[in-house]
Q: What sequence folds into this?
């Protein structure tokens, strides 16, 4: 067997491990092992690559490659090990961005390398797509990181004529691609690179904090597709398989997330959602209904007399760092023979599934974490729905009020339970900036205050009873 | 020459369908690890970056290739490490003494 055949077989093995890993993610039991299998497959591919021939000779610059890898490892390992789980979306955005950047660099360098051989038009097209998509992903992820890390505002950034300007930049990039296809000009490639960077930035600017789960999924898909495009250029099935898998996963998650928000993808990307706040934040409505508030002790008594409790956590819980106290409260209730579940909305948190990770970190067993549909059937028989740090995801306006901006979003029906306890910092509205009718529901008891403090008081009160 | 293109397109399309089928079965509680895990997988661009740097013949190519290897290594290593850390946290309910034993006892 020739050297090249052996290396290709090892690449085939790696591609298979990637599929095995994704299959492992079908259940929490096998997920971790699957990830390790993929990591091993990746290692095999990397080691095999050291023995590959490029243009008929062994790899140059082996020490330079090892040095670059060493630099990458010493930055990546501590970052990945010590990042807080609340900061996970930022980290995923960075790793996604650097992947897109690498794909873009690979495509550019390959273009410079092969240009003198007068490559076919389709080869140039692959290169240009790799550069365009990879760079948009890199720049877009960088802006998403800045938003998530709160180094810039999380609200949508808008300016006059935004959609027109963005559209013009997009058209300019496309016409540049056509020109390069004809001329194979390297200087124009650098201009395309700059333009793609601008496109990535202005594409992400109008997208608000609450829509970031959709955005991150989409950028993930972009990087996957950029890697697949590089795979075409380099003639590597491994890159094509891996890139396409990620592209498919990103597109699927993007669709799931927009569906969970009840909005179309174009609405999420282009409408600058959340830039207008319509709610008044008053405790009395125009029709005379007012909210009923109670103390943490009242809430504890209500919980103590129930037999089924469904907790509805939102990102506000993580902001208040209340996950651990919440788990303590749930454990305490369980020790009294009360059934406890957590109802998780798909868009709770800042990336798909984020809330589940935050609760898993607080040692909540995964059997207690319910998806949207299961949540609503559990709530129908629950005595108490405990809403902590969530708001828009339990807003009945999504069902009853066709004029509401969140109309059509699937929600967790907290009002199906006998009683609702709503922990809230203030009457301020949630991310969508709209009023929540659930607060005025006669079933609802509001407990004002910081979620962590309130939960701590509730734990003490349950213990005392 | 065009046969190669068709072969790559075949791989792409089949993978897209297989990938969609598998990923649709990932439960929503694992969507964050799915995202960071697939993130790590697209770090396979490291293989491409190594070939670029290993085949570099000019200074410009060396610089770009060197940067690409650093970025791709960050992507691969960071992606796998953080996914492992996350998945380690997903634990089943601790077996209780009174309750009937389940078949999911950890080894």
A:
């Amino acid at each position: 067997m020739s050297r090249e055949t052996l290396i290709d077989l090892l690449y085939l093995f790696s591609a298979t491990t990637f599929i095995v890993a994704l299959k492992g993610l079908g259940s929490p039991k096998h997920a971790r092992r699957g990830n390790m299998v993929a990591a091993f497959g990746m290692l095999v591919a990397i080691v095999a690559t050291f023995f590959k021939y490029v243009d008929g000779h062994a790899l140059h610059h082996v020490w330079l490659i090892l040095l670059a890898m060493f630099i990458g490892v010493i930055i990546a390992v501590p970052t990945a090990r010590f990042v807080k789980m609340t900061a996970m979306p930022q980290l995923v955005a960075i790793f996604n961005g650097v992947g897109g950047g690498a794909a873009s660099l690979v495509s550019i360098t390959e273009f410079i390398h092969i240009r003198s051989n007068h490559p076919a038009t389709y080869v140039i097209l692959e290169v240009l797509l790799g550069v365009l998509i990879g760079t948009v992903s890199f720049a877009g992820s960088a802006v998403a990181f800045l938003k998530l890390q709160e180094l810039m505002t999380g609200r949508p950034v808008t300016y006059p004529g935004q959609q027109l300007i963005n559209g013009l930049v997009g058209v300019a990039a496309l016409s540049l691609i056509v020109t390069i296809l004809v001329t194979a000009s390297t200087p124009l490639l650098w201009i395309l690179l700059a333009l793609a960077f601008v496109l990535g930035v202005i594409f992400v600017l109008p997208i608000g904090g609450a829509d970031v789960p959709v955005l991150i999924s989409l950028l993930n898909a972009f990087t996957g597709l950029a890697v697949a495009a590089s795979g075409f250029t380099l003639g590597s099935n491994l890159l094509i398989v891996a890139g396409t898998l990620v592209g498919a996963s990103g597109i699927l998650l993007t669709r799931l997330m927009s569906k969970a928000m009840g909005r179309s993808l174009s609405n999420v990307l282009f409408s600058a959602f959340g830039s207008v706040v319509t709610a008044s934040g008053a405790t009395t409505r125009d029709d005379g209904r007012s909210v009923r508030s109670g103390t943490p002790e009242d809430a504890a008594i209500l919980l103590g007399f129930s037999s089924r409790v469904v907790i509805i956590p939102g990102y506000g819980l993580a902001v208040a760092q209340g996950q651990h106290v919440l788990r303590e409260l749930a454990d305490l209730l369980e020790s009294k023979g009360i059934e406890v579940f957590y109802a998780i909305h798909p868009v709770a948190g800042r990336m798909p599934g984020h809330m589940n990770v935050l609760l898993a970190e607080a040692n909540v067993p995964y059997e207690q974490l319910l998806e949207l549909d299961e949540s609503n059937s559990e709530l129908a028989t629950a005595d108490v729905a405990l809403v902590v740090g969530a708001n828009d995801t339990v807003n009945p306006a999504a069902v009853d009020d066709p004029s509401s901006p969140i109309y059509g979003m699937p929600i967790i029906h907290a009002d199906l339970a006998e009683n609702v306890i709503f922990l809230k910092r203030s009457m301020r509205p949630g991310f969508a900036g709209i009023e929540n009718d659930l607060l005025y529901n006669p079933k609802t008891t509001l407990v004002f205050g910081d979620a962590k403090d309130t939960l701590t008081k509730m734990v003490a009160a349950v213990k005392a009873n | 020459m065009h046969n190669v293109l068709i072969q790559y397109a075949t791989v792409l399309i089949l993978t897209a369908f297989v990938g969609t089928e598998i990923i649709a079965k990932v439960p929503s509680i694992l969507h964050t690890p799915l995202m960071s895990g697939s993130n790590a997988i697209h770090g396979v661009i490291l293989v491409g970056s190594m070939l670029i740097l290993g085949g570099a013949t000019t200074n410009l190519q060396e610089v770009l290739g060197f940067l690409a290897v650093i970025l791709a290594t960050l992507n691969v290593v960071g992606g796998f490490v953080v996914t492992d850390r996350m998945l380690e946290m997903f634990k089943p309910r601790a077996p209780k003494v009174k309750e009937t034993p389940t078949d999911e006892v950890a080894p």
Observations:
- Chain A touches chain B through 115 residues (CB under 8 Å).
- Residues 121-148 of chain A form the longest helix (28 residues).
- The CA atoms of residues 62 and 77 of chain A lie 22 Å apart.
- Chain A has a mean pLDDT of 91.
